[in-house]
UniProtKB/TrEMBL annotation:
UniProt-listed SUPFAM superfamilies: Winged helix' DNA-binding domain (SSF46785)
Gene3D superfamilies, A to Z: Winged helix-like DNA-binding domain superfamily/Winged helix DNA-binding domain
Domain of life: Bacteria
Naturally occurring in which organism (per UniProt): Lentzea waywayandensis
Protein name: Helix-turn-helix domain-containing protein
Amino acid sequence: MRDVIYLDRMEQAETLLKPQRVEVLRQLAAPRSCTEVAEVLDQTPQRVHYHVKQLVKAGLATQVSERKVRGVQEGLYQAVARSYWLSPRLVGRIGSRDELVLGHLVDLAEQVQADVAALDRSSELPSVGVSGEIRVRPEERQQFLAELQTTLQDLFTRYGGAEGDAFRIALACYPKGESR
């Protein structure tokens, strides 16, 4: 199971943004049959099966195995990711993320976007935005991350008092993927 899947197709978003399907998908965090999900959600297996098939068709869930129950083959399904990030141009995001995984950056980006949107832009606001690329050899990764953490901790210690204007610092450090 992947941690995060970025959804940028309207068909996937439409499939996901139905309250009953979201509930079904949540139940598929671990492999389950439609009958098991139906029992938890107090629905008929046929109704759940319909929603599961739509989730599978959209690539949001997958059949992970089959088993024989009372002489009938029953599929076990599971969500393909823990979180689904819908492209901002579509709708938004569903699910929570752990700080230690790449998906946390999605939450951070959304928080920065919400904070900036809430600012009073009628006056000049002191802010800085920096972006760059650093190349680090695999054997130097730990040293790089330790230095980055030390540098930031020094700033937090030096300027972390209770008085003065509050600034939020959001730093995202992640491996650069291939261009889309």
